Amino acid sequence: MKISKEANPVLSYKDFVDEVINDYKIAVTSRECSILGRREVLTGKAKFGIFGDGKEVPQLAMAKSFKNGDFRSGYYRDQTFMMAIGELTPLEFFAGLYAHTDLNYDPMSAGRQMGGHFTTHSLDNQYEWKDLTAQKNSSSDISPTASQMPRLLGLAQASKIYRHQKDFDSKKFSKNGNEIAWGTIGNASTSEGLFFETINAAGVLQVPMITSIWDDEYGISVHAKHHTTKENISEILKGFQKTNTKDGYEIMEVKGWDYVNLIKVYEKAEKTCRENHIPILIHVTDLTQPLGHSTSGSHERYKDTDRLNWEKQFDCNSKMREWIISNNISSNDELLEIEKTIKKQVKEDKAKAWKAIMSINKKNRDELLNIIQRIDGEFISVKVKTLIDSLISTIEPNKKDVISTARKVIHNLNKVELNTKKELINWVNSNDNINYSDYSSHLYSESKYSPLNIKEVKPKYNPDCKEVDARIILRNNFDNILETNKNVIIFGEDTGKIGDVNQGLEGLQDKYGEVRVSDTGIREATIIGQGIGLSLRGLRPIAEIQYLDYLLYAIQIMSDDLATLHYRTKGKQKAPMIIRTRGHRLEGIWHSGSPLGGIVNFLRGIYVLVPRNMTKAAGFYNTMLDSDQPCLLIECLNAYRVKEKEPSNLSEIRTPIGEVEIINPGNDITVVSYGSTLNLIQEIIHELSEFNISIELIDVQTLIPFDIEKGISKSISKTNRLLIIDEDVPGGGTGFILSQLISEQNIYNFLDSEPKILCAKDHRPAYGTDGDYFSKPSKEDIFEKIYEMMNEADPHQYPKLM
Ligand SMILES: Cc1ncc(C[n+]2csc(CCOP(=O)(O)OP(=O)(O)O)c2C)c(N)n1
Ligand SMILES: [Mg+2]
User: Fold this and answer.
1) pTM above the 0.85 mark?
2) Which of 189, 194, 316, 555 best tests ligand 1's pocket when mutated (most atoms within 8 Å of CB)?
3) In the predicted model, what is the mean pLDDT of residues 204-216?
4) Could you give the CA distance from residue 184 to residue 256 in angstroms, rounded to a whole number?
5) Which residues are paired to 250 by β-bridges?
6) 58 touches ligand 1 (CB under 6 Å)
7) How far is the CA of 188 from the centre of ligand 1 (A)?
8) 392: exposed, middle or buried (Cβ count in 10 Å: 0-12, 13-18, 19+)
9) Taking each helix axis from N to C terminus, what angle separates 419-440 and 399-412, rounded to the nearest 10 degrees?
10) Which of 214, 297, 383, 514 has the maximum number of C-beta atoms within 10 A of its C-beta?
11) What are the residues whose beta carbons fall under 8 Å from the beta carbon of 261, sequence distance 6 or more?
């Protein structure tokens, strides 16, 4: 047998034996990591473990066909694959298990993710793209089952785009679109909608995507009979099979312990997929879970004796071992020797990983004790002494033990003035910086491309400039973008042929072709997944979600995947996509929502931009495309046909991020709002002035990040009154704004009266003009609320209205 004909056309018998033995060593190493990893959790050194045992052999086969430039999007069982492609060592495996915060030890997430969540580094230390065609790539795993699927679609589609559209800048990302996106998923996770949505979309798009299903018949304790019709996922997906006349999938099935056939199947799949961009599904059956699902329980609770016995017999590593001996590739004694050596090596690596963490923690502890022990004895209370003794007796302290002791000691020295106490406080503060960097950095771009570094360019207007429907400004701006930024592609429902439902892209598919401006199926989660995957491979997608109300279908993947990506890789991957949507006030429950409270809270990690008009929106698109930060941009649904003046410098305008704008200066009340509601408020400013009320109206413009220069509190320091208005439910967007103003801008001292909020009713907005009027803040509501605040301030001049 030749293991890999393609890679090794003249493989000698010795090379063949070496390759098999090397594979076996990887399988044994991986298994040993699982066994020792489980023990580390059960003895309390690590918190949680979920390992790759029972799935080793198919991953060796997959790794053989995985080439430079390819991408994996998988899940927590793939440690053997990561070892086989040279991206995970046992030392790193244990460093991850112990949550080492140094990327040099845990390159997967610097301790931010639990073990079993793998990644490779796409960015160098300056946040520039590495040459992804010269390395094997894995997108960063996340825990929600099947959530690796949406981005897999985009990773695969990038190859198709690079192959067919040559003017994209593909140097670091693709060689003629030859790269495959490899997905892995557990059998039970195929029950998720995200799986089916992705499989269908990849079939439609015909992208180079190979999805392997690791089938061990269970999802934790739940058997396949509760998960999958006919208990067989490849059987029920047969309708997707390609025929002579219709595009579709190649579907393959193979036993997970059958080393030889696995290699053959993967080689065949690779060739078909890489050359012809045909999506492939490989159903790998007969897998086992020898150590149980995770460290949280044991599988003896739910598998019967027959099943447990079968799993022992069909353990893929044991079967591979049997095959090696029966084919005289090696002997039992030789294999025993190999296994012994590996066990010893893994044990040593485990010890090294632990020592690396402990040496930092012990150094911290010694530094702390050195300071505390210099505090004059008379100030050491019994309580403080107990704290110190407890820390000294903790043989293997974690960071928390050390810092929490330091802080408690400071609490107990509250009435004492001492130089050593100051030293102690300084020590804690300096650790705060380190701990911030270890646990809280990289939520947003920290590179030189951060949008916060991009300067505002204001729109200019010719003296004879005409007013146009605002959508024209947006369309002309997208035209400029597509013309000048070759890596931008725009897609969504009704985005291509008709140029979106509000014609902000009218005519642009004709001008730039179907690759650059395209229609998608109705599948919000995978529209976002496409965007994530494409941007992980250097494209600049603008993914359109037709209405803000339907963002809820996509919010899970935005929250779990996109929003955490840069953070969970500690800056080693980025997906600077733009999510374009339209929302706020129109008609009916599902076309006028403005659920910003949910959005801003779910999407920390993604900028949330809420332009009040299309000129502002155009400037935001331009700013964000100069940056490397993902964002959600919400256009006002009722503003496309409102007239706006068209700037003469459209392609140059840049709307600043994190800056509020005072759109009406005033003295009595600071009124804060955003999006469509602003226009209503603007419309009553004149009426208010007739009642001798002057409001300072502030457009927040960007909810995340929020008012970095603290413009709102400056305004409140002048007016001493605050009213926040939006059209979200109570406690939604307005709650977020108020909490920002209290915690970041300390507005309490500036206020002469209670801060007020005006927002929509608790329910979704009812349909029609009247539904809108009685569900959301109306002009009369706004007027009365403002007047009421003036009445409270000066009842004489502003007598009660009603
Ligand atoms: C959305 C979601 N629901 C539930 C879980 C908890 N969970 C983690 S793994 C798992 C079972 C997955 O089984 P399967 O896909 O067959 O993979 P296996 O562990 O068997 O390899 C469940 C229910 C989760 N991580 N995400
Ligand atoms: Mg399973």
Assistant:
1) yes
2) 189
3) 98
4) 13
5) 280
6) no
7) 7
8) middle
9) 140
10) 214
11) 254, 255
